[in-house]
Specification:
By secondary structure, the chain is of the alpha+beta class. The chain has a domain of about 45 residues: Antimicrobial Peptide, Beta-defensin 2, Chain A (Roll), CATH 3.10.360. Helix content is about 25%, strand content about 25%. It is built from one helix and four strands, in the order αββββ. A four-stranded antiparallel beta sheet has the order 1-2-4-3, with no helix packed on it. Strand 3 and strand 4 form a beta hairpin. The longest helix has 15 residues. The protein starts with a helix and ends in a 13-residue tail after the last strand. About 10% of the residues are buried. The mean pLDDT is about 80. Belongs to the beta-defensin family. It is found in: Secreted. Keywords: Antibiotic, Antimicrobial, Defensin, Disulfide bond, Secreted, Signal. It comes from Microtus ochrogaster (Prairie vole). Has antibacterial activity.
Amino acid sequence: MRTAVLAMALLLLSQVIPGSPERCWKFQGACREECTKNEKFYILCWSGKLCCVKPQKVPQLSQDLN
């Protein structure tokens, strides 16, 4: 129980601390207005910003149609 409360407190603080971007895509990406040149847009964040992820972390879609 104490661990759950501590985890919730840390999660809340990470959202409040200025300079720490909102995390997305299994904590592999960051929500930003624009992605940097070494990142790819993958999905939208809850805030409407772009979820910017390093290209090697973006899942590849299968082309198999069978």
